[in-house]
Structure formats: C-alpha cells, structure tokens
Write a structure and sequence with these properties.
Structural class: alpha+beta
Number of domains: 3
CATH class of the largest domain: Mainly Alpha
Distance between the termini: 40 Å
Strand content: 15-25%
Number of helices: 9
Helix content: 40-55%
Radius of gyration: 16 Å
Length: 201
C-alpha cells in the first residue's frame, strides 16, 4: 500500500494530478478540497494517499490531510458508495461540514452533491453515525503551499472540466460559473465558488 507521496507537481487537471517522484510519474485523483491547497505546477508537494485496486486498474487517490483520507476510507466502506462518489462528497463539502451533517442527521444538504440521492444520503447518515468519533484527534494540517495563477480562459476551462468530472451537467456548470463572483480568477477559486453556489441553491 502506498501511504504518502512526496515529489514535484508535474501537472494538475482537476480532478487528476501528476506527481514526479524521482523520475516516476504517479497519476493521482484528488478531491477539490485538496486542489485548493496545491502549490503551483513545478513545486514540491506532499500528499496522503490511498490505493484502490480494481480488476482493470490500480487507482491512486491523494489527499491534503489525514482527515480527508480517513473520511474517504470510511465512505467507501458504506454500501453503494464507491471512490468516485466519495471524491464528489469530499469535493462538495469539507470534512467538518460532512461530520456536522451526520451529527445533525441532515440528509437535505447531502443530496445537493451530484450522485447522492435520497436513499444514499439516508444510508450515509445511518452507517456513518457511529464513525464520527474516529476523527477525534486527527490533524487537519495542509502542506505549506503558494498560490498559482493561470489565465482566466484557462482557469474557466479547467474549472468546467473539473465540475464535469464531479458529475455536474454542462448546462448547470455554465450557470454555476456565471454566478461566481467576478473576482474569482484562478481555477481553484472558480471551482470553490461554483460549489458554494450549488450548495446554496
């Protein structure tokens, strides 16, 4: 099992990363919560990782904090919740927000995440209720990063692709991005803003 990766961030195209570790490029899928904290392309980065082995592929998932990885691991234990949906949940809300939903038994907030229907939300509330205590004491420390800037057009395109990967429909993505504050210029700001608009609807 690969537990952590430390190397050069060779490329980032939400939700995928390419990390160069000693000349070997590791393809990693990461939630938007991790993307928001990434350094510019070319900088060093450290991630907690989880390897999912399937019949047709080995998929490596990366996380900025141990709490994110822990929640991902607990989510994929829930019936009918696979890695893709777990990634969508981590992209749509913070670990703390998710835990609050579980404690409050708030299914309405969970169903706003693409791919989470009412039955899945209720299953999450039931199966995760006793696991909330597992997060006590886990640090929520992100790697030290510096923000990068990309062109507005490039940022819009990357944000659009990331939201498609999260399960949003193109028409809805266009509406969400138009509603984002005009001060948002980076890919991360656009995605964060779009997800906030989606959560508020």
């Amino acid at each position: 099992m690969i537990g952590t990766l430390r190397g050069r961030l060779a490329a980032k195209h939400p939700p995928q990363l390419l990390i160069d570790v000693g000349g070997v490029g590791y393809e990693v899928e990461a939630p938007m919560s991790t993307f928001y904290t990434l350094p510019p392309t070319g900088a060093d980065v450290s991630l907690f990782t989880h390897l999912v082995v399937r019949e047709d592929a080995h998929v490596l998932f990366g996380f900025g904090t141990e709490r994110e990885r822990k929640l991902f691991r607990e989510l994929i234990k829930v019936s009918n919740v696979g890695p893709k949906l777990a990634l969508a949940l981590l992209s749509g809300m913070t670990v703390e927000s998710f835990l609050l939903c579980i404690e409050a038994q708030d299914a309405d907030t969970l169903v706003r995440i693409p791919g989470v229907g009412r039955k899945t939300a209720e299953r999450l509330l039931i199966e995760m209720k006793d696991r909330v205590k597992l997060f006590a004491g886990l640090e929520n420390v992100m790697p030290t990063t510096e923000g990068g800037v990309v062109s507005a057009n490039g940022a819009q395109a990357e944000a659009f692709s990331a939201l498609v990967a999260l399960g949003y429909k193109p028409v809805e993505i266009t509406r969400l991005l138009k509603a984002v504050d005009s001060s948002a210029k980076t890919t991360e700001d656009l995605i964060r803003g779009a997800l906030q608009v989606a959560a508020a609807k």
